[in-house]
Amino acid sequence: QVQLVESGGGLAQAGDSKRLSCAASGRTFNIAAIAWFRQAPGKDREFVATINWRTSKPDYADSVKGRFTVSRDNAKNTVLLQMTSLKPEDTAVYYCAARPETSSSFGYWGQGTQVTVSS
To answer: What would the pLDDT profile of 69-102 be if each residue is shown by its tens digit?
Structure first.
């Protein structure tokens, strides 16, 4: 089992920066990747960014490329999502999720953290 806890959400204004954290615990040695997803009211959940747990290689959705940076703090088993140039359309609940090496899907999810960006 892997437990994930997000933090860092809150209110921001357009153009601001905000950093989200995803702390992983439990069987972290079995993690292949951690990803960030978000879900805005009335919309489907969408992929934001992912990072390979071993190589720290990142990948991003086109909508956030150049504005968001995903990184890993190895010592703390924490994945960070640095968000810059925030837009009102970035308003959503942000979730981190872990994909085990034995699976092709993200089977472990955090509880989510709300990010609200005002214009």
So the answer is: 999 998 889 999 999 999 999 999 999 999 999 9
**3-class secondary-structure state, position 38:** strand
Residue holding tokens 């357009």?
Answer: 14
Cα(102)–Cα(12) distance, rounded to whole angstroms?
A: 38
Q: What is the DSSP letter of 27?
A: S
Give the dihedral of Cα atoms 75, 80, 103, 109; nearest 10 deg.
110
Q: Which residues contact 46 (CB under 8 A, 6 or more apart)?
A: 37, 38, 39, 61, 63
pLDDT of residue 112: 97
